[in-house]
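[job 4417] fold queue: 2 targets
>>> target A
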Amino acid sequence: MAAGHKLVIVESPAKAKKIGEFLGKEFTVDASVGHIRDLPNPSELPPEMKKGPFGRFAIDVDGGFEPYYVVDADKKKKVTELRRALKDADELYLATDEDREGEAIAWHLLEVLKPKVPVRRMVFHEITREAIQRAVHDTRELDTDLVDAQETRRVLDRLYGYEVSPVLWRKVKQGLSAGRVQSVATRIVVERERERMAFRTASYWDVEGEFAPGGNDGQAFTARLVEVDGSRVATGRDFADDGTLRTKGAVQLNAGAAQAVADGTREARVAVTEVSEKPYTRRPSAPFTTSTLQQEASRKLRLNSQSTMRTAQRLYENGYITYMRTDSTTLSGSAISAARQQARDMYGADYVPEAPRTYGKKAKNAQEAHEAIRPAGDTFRTPAQVAGELRGQEYALYELIWKRTVASQMADAKGSTASVRLAATLPEGTASTAEGGARTAYRRAGYAASGTVITFRGFLAAYEEGRDESRYGEDGAMGHRLPKLSEGVPLETLRAEAQGHQTSPPARYTEATLVKALEERGIGRPSTYAATVGTIQDRGYVRTRGSALIPTWLAFAVTQLLERHFPRLVDYDFTASMEEGLDAIARGDEQRVAWLQRFYFGDEATSTEGLRDLVQDLGDIDARAVSAVEIGDGTVVRVGRYGPYVEVADEDGQPRRATVPDDIAPDEMTGEKAQELLAAAADDGRVLGTDPATGHEVVARAGRYGPYVTEVLPETEEAPKRGAKKVRPRTGSLFADMDLATIDLETALRLMSLPRVVGADPESGEEITAQNGRYGPYLKKGTDSRSLTSEQQIFDITLEEALAIYAQPKQRGRAAAKPPLKELGDDPVSGRAVVVKEGRFGPYVTDGETNATLRKGDEPEEITPERGFELLEEKRAKGPTTRKRAAKKAPARKTAAKKSTTKKTAAQKTTAKKTAATTTAPRTTAKKTTG
């Protein structure tokens, strides 16, 4: 490299490419592709370290909670490339994101690369030419407080997971995981489901009428019954979740009463008794934070949290929006000017208020480190101006961000809300037969109507925030105009109808509303919301039905164990206080070691027990009790080794059990549903007949994993011989096109006979069989398998056809090449055509040389060319995946340097003969001088 060359390191290849466009030839921009180091699993530690202080957690809890880091196996090639690039550079710019995670990545790069040249920390909130050129001339030192906060979070999560997860393994089920935030998020979802399970529906009735002044149908309006004889008519809000009326003095109408009032209203004299009108003002919402962006993208674009953040990441890295992980609602002065000017140009001066709008932070523990999410630049590009560059989700999300930002600096919407009250004098004798036979007469019925009319749209001309569906319905009638009325005006009744209603249970959380709940409680941070929501689904604690999040029975068992035996660990306030502690460390107001000491070992000053002692005594945890969920009437759902099952004791006290299908939500598991499952389980299935070869009865049954047929083996009183293999009945799963209700004995016998012997290869003599497998129907000859195109071929394929398939060259994968799912165009790096294909482990993008699996949230039909190219570039940067076992010979361990209170350019450590891939992590407590 030429003298004066500068190396800039960022996290992603896409970010590196964009920044490279804005810097001169003296700069080289490279990407670390995320983190390069992390805590290893203890099993991956060198043998001599497994017996030392790092052996349990890869953290020395007695030595200042020092972590032991390892360069990731798939990052060793990248580290080598970065060292090579640094060798000829005379300055290093660490340009990772300016949050805790980005600061930690920069510190790890500093620790591993050990630069001997000046190091500068380069930060920016948007990737535009102006922002990058400002950032490169306005660098700062590495903020070790932010590094401390991120490292504390990593240590905290490792200690929590490694101490609590084994409790779940022993008491609930092997392989489960607990997490500081994920367990609390799971509890929130479980608690909502408990509310739904305890909910009891209440029925209530009211009357809707249509009225007009002077019989003028053109001025007709709708009003709803609100009172009878001076008592308020009960609505859904007046009922408790147990179905009882909780509002004192409210009248619960039944069907008969409502119909009587409706009949009486049609005959009654109706007049206006009260008219009121008041001004209506609605202010625009604040610019987007991470949380509100995820919520609004869910409502308006139907994107889940991870898809939203992945799309926003691409928009940020390609210079379209500012940094997307933020809880700030503030805008820079230039952004406010840009939004106001754009609103003025597009909608007129009347749509812009005299003074710029400012927004305060509303979220608990909100930080103001960044701006709100907005279009990048000192002037904003309109959606029309980027329409030729962005497609699909990227365009939709950019448009949403642009609208919200511009609207946030626009004038209030103005209008008026009119309300009218009506009185109907019911004919004498209007009555109903209430429950119990009592006859109640009503003489006077009161109706109410309201309507809001917008006279000046203001910010609504650009954007209107979406709303989550209300549990009790909407109260107002936006845009509904009432006729001009005055007190005493008689009205004609055009229609009066009795309407029945039922109360609704609390709505389940969606990803968006769960993120909102986490934010309101101060749990998690912008960088963790999407990951948390994804984790609880990946771990099997929550599943989705449409957009609703439904907890599994496994989530109930885990939550019950934690609530009963570790209540502090899933306490909302305690979890929020941990976030506050991490914030204090990030500000430099708290020391990481002292804070971790209190969390793990306890706080003598407050007699608070630490995590270590909490998990010591597990003898009093009743595994059977924590895995049981009471349904009522003696019905219990238990989480067993093979999944959830319902259990009820019969008259003799003997338990009757039945598997609970995965598609039954916990709030749907009523006593009646339990009896249905038990009855179905008691039914041994539909008898198809007797196998003529064995004399065994053959039945068709519905199992947890789908319908199947099986033979019923005769019971024997003889005890099996020791060591003898247990005789199991032959079974066979139904094909996809078969129906449990119509399958016959002949087909069942064929299914149970699989695998079918097709014949022998005349050349090798090897037997060829046809059978079904996890990935579909296939042929097998020795170790050579070939896919079939349909399940029916298992029965029909001949030896000649099978030999013809084996005569063809073996296709990579399980079937002949299928047409691509989507074509993305030529890759800018390789120049090859890029397509999306369906693979054995899911869809992936390929240019024929490099394959990259689509991430969760990437839909094959919607993926953009840019996203495909980005995945390939990330894959190339990582290099080939290597799966190596731990080396038999341990690498030389580096001497753990003690933390110093003096400043230094980079943490230096002595090595034994060669640099090891693993290092403990010394760090100064003072700010580092990075050049």
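>>> target B
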Amino acid sequence: MSFRSLFFDQQDRELLLMANKVIERQYTSPMVRKLFDGNLHPHGIKELSVSRELRIAYAVINLLDTLEAGRAEDRLMALTALRDEALMSAETGLRRNTARVLIQIMKELVRAHGDQCRQLKLAHDFRRAASGKPRVIRALLRRYHLLEMPEAWNQLAFDNHVHDANTKGRKNPTHLIMDAWIKGIRHLTVIYYNYIEPAAAQELLQAAEIMGVSIRIGVEFKSPLRGKYVDLIWVPRGFSDAQGFLAFLAEAPTQHLMHEGRKASRWQEQYVLRMLQRWNNRHRRTLNTELGLTLEPLGREEFLAFVGTGQASLLHLAEFIHKRMKPALESRVEELRDEWRIATPPRRAEIETRVEQLNRLDPETILDTWLTHVANDDLPDPEVPSEAPELPDILRMDPRSLLDWLTSLHSGYRVTLNLGGVTVEDVLELLWDCEGLITHLELFNLKDWHEGKADGLEAINALQLAINSGRVPLLKQLIRNIIKDYTESGTADCKERCDKFRAVLRNIPRLQGFYKSVPLRSRIGTDSTSRSHRMHGMGLVFPETLPPRAQRVIRDPKDTMRQIIPVRTTVFLRESYQPRRHPPLGRRLTAMLRRIPGLSRLGYRRETEWVVRTDSSRVTADGNIATLGGFLRDNDNDLSLKETAGAACPRWMGFGYMNTGIVNLLKVLAGFIPAMLSFQYTQSWWVLAWFGALIWFGITGFRNILQAVLGGGGISRTPLLRWNDYVSWSRISDSLMYTGISVPLLEVVMRSLVLQDMLGLTVQSNPTLVYTCIAVANGLYIAAHNSYRGLQREAIIGNLFRSALAIPMSMLYNEIALELLVLGGVADPWAMIQPGAAVISKTASDTVAAIIEGFADRNSNLRMRRWDYESKLEQLYDSYARLELLFPEEDVLELLKAPKQFIRAVEAEARHLETAIIINALDLMYFWMYQPRARDILREQLRSMSADERKVLVRSQLVLTREREVSQLFVDGIVGRNFSRPLAFYLDRHEEYLRDMEQICARGSAGC
């Protein structure tokens, strides 16, 4: 075996091979894509075709592929598949966090294409993350700069100002929503300039619904105010669903607004195109001369094609220039590298300086150096209102006229004033003129703050709080100060504006009345486009709504990826209690127990929700909002005078990437060696001296197997699964390692040194105290390593409880052993029991553990199966509803009783419904035959169904009698290329499954 074969698993290489085929477009046949039919359940029939890891990997790659080249429909289908595969397949307490890590790792694997060593590491990390082990997941969250989110998914993570690819952002709507979910963002406002494309809005709303992200869509308009533009964001609200919003966009008055908005965008595009011309004619030539480059002129059509569906901006232009400049930079560095090898030391220093200069020419440097108004002052300033006759009318409208138009279109709305480049005088004038139409202030914009455009926020915030407070003296003093400061400024419009402010001063109650019922609230956003490497990306969060570990990461001074912004907003926790659908003690018993004082909430599910007071935001250095997005401090073009080496893997890559089988063996040895040495040191009886470690490991191994089988159904488990199908050998290896390390503690330290030698306690003199001390020590040890492994607090407390129960069990085993030794004719049974006290205590502890953890595994399986059946039955009843609509004059239930006639009827009208009904039946059959605890959950679901619902369920399964049609679906690739196993399973088991369904139906209170 070669040294490098110690690292990575065969499954890692298979995963990487498949991933690279997809990346290189070698593995994108329609048959493979059928694996992600929305009707196929992640825990259903396709498990027999492709492993879970490969399905999750392909779902991510499929989505990233469609992000680049696919249609919106394909992107949304890929996103749905990704959600189902990553989220519903995570069988762990950190279900959502595991899914976030899996998606992020696969994104990194795609980006690392060409670097095989890094890809192998990522593939190994991906498979480790798929296990859902808390310690592994938390380590990977830190590695990829993701904060751990509460599994209740109630964190206050948001961003009220982001852009997608339909304006100047980098990501299309689906990609934006996916990345927002990975970061943990629950509330998002996407801003468009001047108009909304209905197709973009539809994709955005559907993607948000798929991932459970609360979404708002806003339109930003510019309006002239005293020689500059102010930005107003209009967010229509009050629609019942996404279709209501899309219908609003289709109305004639809204279409007219969008038409005028497109004129404004085309006007602004002309400035960008003039800047492109200026680059070609002036700045490009200057760079060629100064840096020795050979930059060619850039074409207008090429640039517009690069912009794509977006709205042309200077940010687009900077990236386009950089993309076309990069080959010239690399070529120039190659020339300088050849010269550098033979140059004198002074010349070498000059070359190194020049290469560093070329290396720093990133898009933001291009934007800040050559694409500003200062560098092109002969062009009209786009931020100054123009008097040109061709200026679109919407760009001439004053704020009040514009808002009157916008608010007349829909009764529900929010209007946010962007404070970038706005003074407190501007805000006061706008609030007065607009008479309450401005509902929010964008109190903090991360991009404007980084660019130094957020001066005067404290004064504006003080005005906002004074208006909301209703305190007339405070507001009066603020307005007087504004008048005083503006009078002293001596600006041209000083008298006119101060007269307006004095009118406000005389009518303070009227100003306050605008916001008496609904306060003037705040909005906070990053203004992220996902393009900048110098500023924090999308996402903000209130740290107090995160788990303690995530809060510590944010407070860690070494963590430079996070930043606390200077805004503090009040948040509070609200609790509610919802009755459980299936109380664990039954409805009647639960209702009786609730009458007992202190048990009134028994059978209720506690839900917590964080609530934010957006009218309480204060600009202060003591902020309580942190950034979620990171940034690169040292972003460059990766240019160097040194030739870069290949991407070969080093000989040693650390234990983290070692072959799983070898790691499991090392774990077992790490536990077995100290256990063996401990028994050799303490035991004089040869049986325990030589076989004590094996007995100890045998107890632990048997307990793990027993609890896995109990959790999977025990003796009533499905006959298609063997006992070892329930067993995780990696989990057993971990357990054997920790149990082996416990031997020196329990056998050497506690039993031998402390109890026997120091205190003179033996099982003969005081068995209760001996077993209690050993059980307490074992409980503390288990709690310690559970905490180290990152298990939930409930598991840690449960294991302490397990140790308490082990004390009477130890006494029972002690008595049984004593009786057996006496019956066996042993002269001095205590002489044999005393050395084995730790073994007896261990046996008792693992007996209790097998029962407790077996029931924990059982509940985990029940919870997973409940999710499976609820989602699958929802699909089944949805398909049935569509059948009822398709055949309004037919009795569909009777039609389902005759599968041949049903297939014939549906084939003629809606083939897709036939496929959906068959897939649903196959998935339900797979649940019943393969998934742990599926039979228990189906019986539970049947008890809560109406008679008609049971009939729909059972009769829809009769479609499985049509062997020819079902077999043809498999051959056509409904579960991909590897259909032999699922096809064989169907042919072998469908008759047995249908008999089981008939028996269940016969036991019910109503016929099926």
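[job 4417] complete. Note on B: Residues 223 and 397 are 6 Å apart (CA to CA).
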